[in-house]
User: What shape does this take?
Amino acid sequence: MSEKTDIVLNVNGREHAISVEPRKTLVDAIREDCGQTGTHIGCEHGICGACTVIVAGEPVRSCLMFAVQAAGKPIRTVEGLAKGDELHPMQRAFMEHHALQCGFCTPGFLMLAVGVLEREPDISDDDLLDVLASNLCRCTGYQNIIKAVRAAAQEMRKP
Amino acid sequence: MTTSVAETKGSGTKWVGRSIRRVEDPALVTGAGRFTADFPANHHVRFHRSPIAAGSIKTVTAPKGAMVFTAAEIAAIKPILPMLHKFNYKPLGQPVLARCAVHFVGELIAAAVAPTAAEAEDIAERIEVVFDEKAPLVDARHALEGDAIHAVVPGNVIVDARTKSDGFDAAWSAAAKIVEIDIRSRRQNASPMEARAAHAACDRATGRITLTCTTQMPHLTRTAIADLLEMPESDLRVVAPDVGGGFGQKMSLAPEYVFLVWLARKLKDSVAWVEDRRENLVAAFHSRDQYLTLKGAFSADGRLLALDADVLSNIGAYSCFPTTCGVEPLMALAELPGPYDFRAYSCRARGVVTNTCPMAPYRGVSRPVITFALERLIDKGAAACGLDPVEIRRRNLIAKFPYTSAAGLVFDEGSYRKTLEIAAEKLDVPAFRARQDGARKRGRYLGIGFGTFSERTGYGSPAFAARGMAITPGWETVVMTVDPSGFVEARIGSSPHGQGLRTTLAQIISDEIGVAPERIKIVHGDTDRSPYGWGTFASRSLVICGGASLIAAQKIRTKLTKIAGDLLEASPDDIVLENDTARVAGTDRAVSIAQLAREAYTQTHRFKGIEPGITETGNYDPPGTFSNACHAAIVEVDIETGKTKIERYLVAEDAGVLINPMIADGQVHGGVAQGIGNALLEEIVYDETGNPLSTTFADYMPPTAHEIPTIELHHVETPSANSITRAKGLGEGGGIGAPAAVINAINDALSPFGVQIDEMPATPQRVRAALRQAEQAK
Amino acid sequence: MKPAPFIRHAPKTLDEALKILNEVAPDDGRILAGGQSLVPIMAFRMARPAHLVDINEVAGLDKLAVESGKLVVGARVRHAVFHKAAAPGPLGELLTTVARNIAHYPIRMRGTMCGSLANADPASEWCLTAATLDAEMVAKNVGGERVIPARAFFEGIMSTALAENELLAEVRLPLLPDGARFGFNEFSRRAGDFAMSASLVVYELKDGEIANPRVGVGGAEPHPRRIAEAEQALAGQAPGDGIFRAAAEAAAAAIDPLEDPQTSADYRRDLVRAVVRRALEASAR
Assistant: This one.
């Protein structure tokens, strides 16, 4: 144990006043201290991308940031994607195209795809494939994830 | 009135065969899924694991004041003892925490307990263990020559099975060509994205434990742990919540889970363990580490006459529960003849104990390796007989059904040749050959490869009994209720974790009882809620649990039509169930099924000879069925770096009737991706001291979206006579065909160099080493 | 896989950062920049610094400017900044090309160029870039600053000339003349993995002949470096397949390859031969 620091994490617009050790990763704080367990931990060394969240508009691996580094910054997780009962186009596309099976990697893929498309709405299909190669999925063989993200990208580009 | 049941089922839309969206998805895309690691606990466990592969434990010292448990404290827990009663199997127990010796890197020695995972890790790393180290045996061939690792397994051979068909020697001596191949399949890890995890909570009032864990087999987990802790099974509830993939790794009993239940009972509190990725790669179950030597006797015109096989399977340091470590060698023994029609077969299959992580089932179990081996042999036979790979398969694939294989297995009807012809036609082999020639002239090396196979699925209990297993997990039970609300609840013993079974079972049930799928709820993964069953593995769930669901639904249907007949004053035979309504055929006299259900509970006095309520049970234990497929790959091998790029990948497969084609496609996609990973990328490497080197996802390499090409699927649907839904299993097939197709294609690409790649994964390093050797030999 | 405990310092100014670093460096204090290399090894507890000096809030370290013919990149400048041209002329294009090969998009959002250089992984694309272009590293500590040329900066596998109390505050990359040609190629098992070998080549064309050739090789030796033998093979020659092959062969022969249980010296030479030639081919397109 080391001394804890009091911080405020803003997750999906809601402020969580929490007390964490400096060594606590952002993903652990989101899950354990903020109770938002939709963000998953797959490898804790930055390769699988299951923990991808959007911090201050940037899709990042939340296992490679410490919670204290995200204090005060807007953090978005899978729980914040839908607006009430209305799912985000990316969520709808994943269901429509059978882009998930066990669903464990899904929140990471959703946040990765949404995070990148919000920054680069006109990203090419090839570049989008490069982006999707950032995260690992063991169930789908990626075929339907690629289809879903391309379909949602079209949808998101609509004014 | 002689209307048949089939005719009165209604003429409405059938749900089977439609790609409806999955009911599983809304929770999973919104972060509302619940996985084991999501459950908070008051205590967290971190295990101290052996850093050495072999040695005796002299002392274990825990940091002062820390809560640490060792073998001494848990002496009452019996060792895990998987059993086989055949094939010279040597029973080998595994202590939950190592007692006086360790036998692989990663073996559990002690458990540190603290309020958080990080603090538990702080304690665990300060536990000091003094060993008397021994030289380990890492490789199966070395272990055959070495001293016994366990006294109860002399010579380190834990299972030794042989078979030889009558007339083998005569067939062998009639051959025109003998072709031999040595295959090496390296060690792999199923690597589900969710590693293993367990959470055990004690109800202080009753002492009852709820174990929430990521498992494919909740009921057998309960039975096994209750046995080991000598506690009443009713005092243990096992829950498999959302499970983040398993692929076989989560069907074997984790010693960690046993400890967690013991600890929750001891502390009378909630305790959790979440495996990290390094632990998973080092010490969760491995698979596929085998040597195979195949000899094929061919006639001059390319007919395979006889097959002689030797299978040496590195099973690791202990046997796994429940399948035992016989699972890989014994499946090889039974299924090596594959999809080919020949009568003479001889095989010796051995499992060898080594100082490595225990082996357990992983998607395809043995068949990715035996298919790779046999398909390499067939391609080599083709070359020896001057045939192309399609023609030699055409001459040898089985075509008459039912077919009894050289190993004695009975195949139901399939489409072995048809799927081959589809693949060959779609890839246009002659056009490819012309393109291949042109490319070679420009210094580019393309190749085509085929992987044809049969996939035994829906194993009933006799299949496991034939293996001599003490536990024969072949049947399933479904308990189905139409409750007074008119909704249907089917409680199942299978335990899906990504396969979409809640959706496909609802489709099967809906067609039978006329209730829309959204009104049918499937309950699974909770021993308090679901009937005893065997969970999900071996491409069984849709066949066996689907069959049990259909049987239960048929009984429900019978009861609903009886009640409706009484209410509508018609013969039950004239009642049509569709669109949530029971109707007298050809009339507008109807009543809603919800109304029927309500009255079955509340108006029982009106129904003579009908028991109250609507609950029925379906049991199903099928004889087993064989799916089949032909996979084909076109690859380009970069001869300078040895890297293989898959240009095109095609699957022509037959899994009988498809219940939900979208879900079936997804299963094949995922299987192929794992198969490609197995073929090209994934390898657990040990050094000579038994230290695993592949401990991160940078070293153990599941493929990314970049390495997986577009997968073209072609379905043939041959309804199975051995499955009452006419469906066959297909969960594993995608992974079975890929290594053979991809590595055959690599060999085809490299044929101008006279090199052979008979090892999986076919890494760039191995390809270059073979090419370099060929260059130097010139 | 949780990091061992540490004390975090979050200075707001460079002076403050250097002062803290000076105090905690002897007590196993380290700089935390993007964290994309450091945090994983902390999770494995292969690194367990007692103090982290988090420079993510230090004013001024996000400098990105052209000064005296050099692109100056501050310690907080992240890889993703180079997704778009961040410098005029061919250098901007070169950095964009290289950046796309660094790990994956979310890693590039956080990781920094200076962090990669200070981490000195043999496979790092930025280390290869710095070595090839003879970048200058500006190291600062409480006593002042010194400028370290790339060839003196990289000392071995994850080892540099930086003293423990020094911060790599900025790197200066020389702009390339208009018309400079460059090519980059790397080999990895999967997209985004560490390069098993990589090459960056830069040269100018004078009267159709190669002038000022630079051939850098990374991922093959303990640290990336320019390969003089390959450069000699190119200098004064017209670009073309034969000369590219000769240079690639010279590079493969010149290296002292890293080996591991899966990767032999021969294989590493094979890769160097391939990536150098391919980088040269890319330069000629």
